[in-house]
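Listing S7. Sequence submitted for prediction.
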Amino acid sequence: MPTPPASGSPQDRPPLEPIRVLRPRRTDALAELFKEMEQGTGDLEAVAVPDPRSWDEGETQELPPVRTDGPGAPRRGDRFGFGPGLRRAAVTVAVAAAALIGFGGALLLHARNNDATAEPPRPTASAEPTATASAASDPDGAGTLREGDSGPAVTDLQQRLLRIPNIYDNGSTGGTYDATLKAAVARFQLWYGIRGDETGVYGNDTRLALESRTATGTG
């Protein structure tokens, strides 16, 4: 036999009722929204809509119903007409544009770097030293003597020619390369077959031939 519950136990207390919390609705914000909508429509211009009964049904055509299943049904994400092919084309165009922009930027950067690191133009040599060098390099060889020259080298030439018979008889040894000495040099070149130098010019070939015939101890 169950024992009666003791007085003051939880079973003697009345059951608790659920508490309901009432929150006031924000009607002010809703009223302000409707008020703004009414004010915005006040500035709009009324447009006359033609009576549908006046339309010519012969010029209209009923569109076929859209299939929601099957192979011809539009896929998800294609409701705006952007199919897979169009999306791929758009992505390809975007990638190509980005590549062109990057390539153009690289070219501009490379051109700027080249301009910054380019060496300043070096001064070119003047034409005067070149002309002087070409004049110094005589085609008849270094130390060539010709009409108008003077000095010890001309005196040595005159003394050597005096030792060759019938070439420079009774010639001067004053050290001046005059017309008489030029004629003697030309005569020596002609008689001994010297062709490497200009006529009447004491060049390398003429010098070797004359020195070989007027060496020390020979007459």
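Caption to Listing S7: primary sequence and predicted structure tokens for the chain studied. The two ends are 176 Å apart (CA to CA). Residues 125-135 have pLDDT under 50 and may be disordered.
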